[in-house]
Amino acid sequence: MAHPSQLGFQDAASPVMEELLHFHDHALMIVFLISTLVLYIIVAMVSTKLTNKYILDSQEIEIIWTVLPAVILILIALPSLRILYLMDEINDPHLTIKAMGHQWYWSYEYTDYEDLGFDSYMIPTQDLAPGQFRLLEADHRMVVPVESPIRILISAEDVLHSWAVPALGIKMDAVPGRLNQTAFITSRPGVFYGQCSEICGANHSFMPIVVEAVPLEHFESWSSLMLEDA
Amino acid sequence: MSLAKPVMRGLLGKRLRFHLPIAFALSLVAAAGFKYMVTEPRKQAYAEFYKNYDAVKEFNTMREAGIFESVRPSGE
User: Fold this and answer.
1) Least CA distance to A220: which residue of chain B?
2) Does ipTM top 0.90?
3) Do residues A36 and A104 both lie within one domain?
């Protein structure tokens, strides 16, 4: 989850998020390269009285400052497109979960084998136990088996919402009448938090997402227990 | 005594020929600095973390700490 005075991304908990982290580093390196160049030139320009009023054109510099930016753009585009297609791969998921956005909670349906469905409301601040996170905890978490490819189908029952979990590198709009599909694998067990990412009314900031990744046997025990309670 | 005629032309060009290579070199140094001080250490950190990562041990530690809701600590 996020922590105070955080500047960068949350630690990656999925291979896709690791790739996104490295791509961001690559793009930021190019940003620093260009910014340093421009800053130096600005300082050099303002700290001189020398001017040349009679320059009309210069083919050489025009070629340089056309070709160089084109090369830089290609250096950014190639890894970007690689990640874009990587994120689109859905390789034989072990489980399909439906996440439905409502005003103002999420509901999850695990219908591959049995009919398991539950709502996930934010735990109000006054009901938090010691150690729980304000505005991030939910009463029922979306439990998934760790290191298993999961397909998630996202939609909404009323207005636009967006299902986002930064540590997993996922953000997908929940659109009424539309099923959006994405997939993820959790690299390690743990609890990963997210928040609704599309303005959806008064309690838009108060419908968090909590994903809990546990080993398969514990996931199976949990789903059996949830089915009994239902 | 006669003085040498001062240079009166090409002053801006001379300044640019001096400063532009420094500008490009500095920007490449900044990019290389970021790459080797941030990007590569981050990649190494992730590789090191997962090289000897024991998911079962970490899961049990987290479980005993009580952070999961689907799995309670073994004492409960």
Assistant:
1) B70
2) no
3) no
